[in-house]
Amino acid sequence: MAVTGIILVASGVLLAVVGRLAATGRIKRNEFLGIRTKRSKADDESWRIVHQRAQPWMHASGAALLVTGAAVLAIGSDGAVTGLLTLAGVLVCMVFALLGVAAGHRGLARRDLPR
């Protein structure tokens, strides 16, 4: 389970860092990183707005994975407990990420963009 814990911690850090870099404009529109929806990729301003509005949620999503990974590492090799903990942490991460996408797209509500 140490590998699972390390992967979760690293994934949480990566998610938070990518969220921050996209929100600050250091990651431009692309096909690999960030929130890549039709609306967010419509133009550079849309990309920036979506990521700035989503940033707190992406940080929360990354924190959920980081905390889950740390807990998995602390618990050790109890397969059932760490499996359930991992599942719960990933689900919380996904909910926060989806809330971030929704918040980002709400930031575009006043703009005339493709839906």
**Approximately how much helix is present in the residues?**
over 70%
Q: What is the H/E order?
A: HHH
Low-confidence stretches: none
Instruction: Give the DSSP E fraction (strand runs of 2 or more residues).
Output: under 5%
How many β-strand runs?
0
> Structural class of the helices, strands and pairings?
mainly alpha
Distance between the termini: 42 Å
3D shape = elongated
Question: How confident is the prediction overall: mean pLDDT?
Answer: 92
Q: What's the number of helices?
A: 3
Gyration radius, rounded? 16 Å
Q: Please summarize the sheet with the most strands.
A: none
Structure at a glance:
The chain is built from 3 helices and no strands.
Description of the molecule:
It contains 3 helices and no strands. The mean pLDDT is 92. The chain starts with a helix and ends in a 9-residue tail after the last helix. The protein has 115 residues and is mainly α.
Essential attributes:
single chain; 115 residues; mainly alpha; 3 helices
